[in-house]
């Protein structure tokens, strides 16, 4: 039972981390930042300079520059899961007379997911360029709360359209910027949000279907082995009926890789299902995660008391309208799947 205890502790720690991330997202000071800064202060004096420089270079390379590392990690994890499913679960399911149609669903979902994954990586998210910026400025009005007219990007040297943001990783301004996703090594913006949503739902469906097939296989293995009617001799020499914990421990010892795969699939399903539902909510109210993040801790620099009277927020913005760009759920979804494109005016 020691193995089960360690696994339970692992699950609790992972779930706690997820809850903390959800609770403190959008806040500057979080337990993670405080803990990380404290560890750095303690470890830095005893860490060699070359190791510090290497760590800083590695972190900068992974999270502040475009690279394919997380794409390779994504593919590696996917290959490991599908290899385990194919070589162990698939055979057991065939012996249980599971139909080939049911067993082919994960592979069909894999093909669908790969298609949307590729589109997320390759499609332009809606880069603001000198050629298109004049038309992009007219796609969305400025809400004068989070987005203000006449503001230029100091890096791109272009006037920023409403709902755009400069991505420091990609070094470009993106129309209707949502976030930069390291797993696809690309920004999520106006032109590829639909692919990102479909990618999330296809991964959830893939993980959920494989988890159900694996759980069904384990359930049949328990029923056919007669473990529920079995008994064992405990440490006091007394005969005890095999309870749920005994069955779980037996499954861990008999199918260790399958159990860990099932745990990973369940973890991925719930994590990405929550993330997909969050982005679905944002799509229904026509809000990006960048706008949601800013609105949670909203402090408008142009409305600061120390600014002059001719600041950009005059007249005062309407703070009561939280979802400024919402036009109703159906039209909002239509805007996601059929995003408005900048129309270039022809010279007469």
TrEMBL record:
The keyword Phosphoprotein does not apply. InterPro entries: Palmitoyltrfase_DHHC, PFA4/ZDH16/20/ERF2-like. GO terms for biological process: protein targeting to membrane. It is found in: Cell membrane; Endoplasmic reticulum membrane; Golgi apparatus membrane. One of its GO terms (cellular component) is plasma membrane. GO terms for molecular function: protein-cysteine S-palmitoyltransferase activity. It catalyses: L-cysteinyl-[protein] + hexadecanoyl-CoA = S-hexadecanoyl-L-cysteinyl-[protein] + CoA. The chain crosses the membrane at residues 6-26, 69-92, 104-121, 196-219, 258-278. Keywords: Acyltransferase, Cell membrane, Endoplasmic reticulum, Golgi apparatus, Lipoprotein, Membrane, Palmitate, Transferase, Transmembrane, Transmembrane helix. Residues 152-295 form the Palmitoyltransferase DHHC domain. It is a multi-pass membrane protein. The keyword Lipoprotein applies. Its main location: membrane. Its EC number is 2.3.1.225. Belongs to the DHHC palmitoyltransferase family. The DHHC domain is required for palmitoyltransferase activity. This is Palmitoyltransferase. It comes from Seriola lalandi dorsalis.
């Amino acid at each position: 039972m020691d193995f089960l205890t360690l696994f339970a502790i692992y699950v609790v720690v992972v779930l706690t981390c997820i809850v903390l991330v959800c609770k403190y997202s959008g806040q500057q000071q979080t337990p993670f930042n405080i803990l990380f800064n404290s560890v750095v202060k303690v470890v830095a004096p005893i860490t060699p300079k070359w190791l510090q420089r290497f760590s800083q270079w590695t972190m900068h390379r992974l999270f502040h520059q475009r690279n394919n590392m997380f794409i390779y990690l994504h593919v590696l994890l996917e290959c490991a899961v599908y290899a385990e499913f194919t070589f162990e679960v698939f055979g057991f399911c065939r012996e249980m007379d599971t139909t080939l149609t049911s067993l082919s669903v994960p592979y069909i979902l894999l093909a669908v997911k790969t298609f949307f994954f590729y589109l997320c990586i390759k499609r332009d998210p809606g880069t603001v360029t000198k050629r298109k910026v004049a038309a992009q400025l007219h796609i969305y009005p400025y809400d004068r709360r989070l987005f203000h007219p006449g503001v230029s990007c100091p890096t791109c040297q272009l006037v920023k359209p409403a709902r755009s943001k400069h991505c420091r990783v990609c070094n470009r301004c993106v129309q209707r910027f949502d976030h930069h996703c390291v797993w696809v090594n690309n920004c999520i913006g106006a032109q590829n949000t639909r692919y990102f949503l479909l990618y999330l739902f296809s991964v959830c469906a893939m993980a959920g279907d494989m988890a159900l097939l694996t759980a069904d296989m384990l359930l049949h293995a328990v029923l056919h082995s007669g473990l529920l009617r079995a008994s064992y001799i405990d440490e006091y020499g007394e005969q005890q009926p095999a309870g749920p914990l005994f069955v779980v421990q037996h499954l861990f010892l008999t199918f260790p890789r399958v159990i860990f795969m099932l745990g990973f699939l369940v973890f991925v399903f719930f994590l990405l299902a929550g993330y997909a539902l969050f982005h679905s909510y944002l799509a229904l109210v026509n809000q990006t995660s960048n706008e949601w993040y800013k609105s949670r801790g909203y402090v408008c620099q142009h409305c600061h008391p120390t600014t002059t009277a001719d600041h950009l927020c005059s007249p005062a913005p309407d703070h009561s309208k939280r979802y400024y760009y919402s036009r109703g759920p159906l039209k909002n979804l239509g805007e996601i799947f059929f995003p408005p494109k900048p129309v270039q005016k022809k010279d007469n």
